[in-house]
Write a structure and sequence with these properties.
Layout: E1 6-9, E2 13-17, E3 23-28, E4 31-34, E5 39-42, H1 46-63, E6 70-73, E7 78-82, E8 85-86, E9 89-96, H2 100-105, E10 112-122, H3 134-139, H4 145-167, E11 171-184, E12 190-195, E13 203-207, H5 217-220, H6 226-237
Antiparallel strand pairs: 1-2, 2-3, 3-7, 4-5, 6-7, 8-11, 9-10, 9-11, 11-12, 11-13
Helix pairs in contact: 1-6
Length: about 250
């Protein structure tokens, strides 16, 4: 890893300059954070699992017509992605009441919603990633109206697909966060693509039969069994946890 030019290091990933123009190498760490980086820890092997689950989900989504920044997985912890201009929004989908929605509205966790809710939060750690109404997104120039419409349409399609995808392996997709970016189309324009990752880090996954949490809530709430939960999600998805390179277990 030392021979690569580091571009950025976040809570769970490191971005390096890619091997060809307009590409980036995304490296997945085992670091775990919660409550806007107040709680910190490590989930052994998380980076490897998240890398491989993200590869699988991005690949499946591209097959149903969702453009993504994913190009290919390079190793146990690395994947090659297109360099995009990230839109500073977290797009949150809620199928069942959990997390902040429980606290904000006083609704019992686990209450299934009559239809999915899609909401935006401003991607800004210093401000605590506040919820932001669509009108604010437009007036503040965060995204154009056609982009918001396209994001909503793609998000609905992603949710419809992934709910069925996870239901097929006995997992209920409670909620999740997405990020989108603008990718250069080579003709002085751009188009929107799904970016970042999809893993137990940015969604809530509950076992359909037992209701057992199989995501980062196990870390947030000190439930224990984080490693086993992530591994079980991977196992059900058919993701191999066998290391291609033993050195992948070593962190930066």
């Amino acid at each position: 890893m030392s021979d690569k030019e580091k571009l950025y290091e976040g809570k769970a990933k490191i971005l390096y300059k890619g091997p060809r123009p307009d590409t980036i190498i995304q490296y997945f760490k085992d670091d775990a954070t919660a409550f806007n980086n107040v709680k910190k820890g490590t989930i052994a092997g998380k980076g490897i699992i998240n890398n491989k689950i993200t590869e699988l989900v991005m690949t499946r989504l591209s097959q149903i017509g969702i453009p993504t920044h994913f190009i290919e997985r390079l190793s146990d912890r690395e994947q090659l992605i297109y360099e995009v201009e990230i839109i500073p929004l977290e797009v949150i989908v809620r199928n069942t009441v959990a997390g902040t929605m429980t606290k904000t509205f006083g609704i019992e966790e686990g209450t299934r919603l009559p239809r999915p809710i899609i909401e935006f939060s401003l991607k800004d750690d210093d401000l605590g990633d506040p919820l932001i109404p669509e009108n604010h997104v437009l007036v503040l120039g965060i995204a154009e109206e056609y982009e918001v419409i396209e994001i909503m349409e793609m998000t609905s399609k992603i949710n419809d697909f992934l709910r069925g995808f996870f239901a097929g392996i006995g997992i209920e997709l409670i909620d999740f966060k997405l990020e989108f970016g603008r990718l250069d189309d080579g003709n002085d324009g751009h188009f929107l693509v799904l970016a970042d990752e999809f893993s137990p880090d940015n969604c809530r996954l509950w076992d359909f039969e037992t209701g057992e949490k199989m995501d980062k809530d196990r870390f947030r709430r000190d439930l224990g069994g984080e490693v086993e939960a992530y591994q079980e999600v991977a196992r059900r998805l058919g993701v191999s946890l066998e290391l291609e390179d033993p050195k992948a277990e070593d962190e930066e």
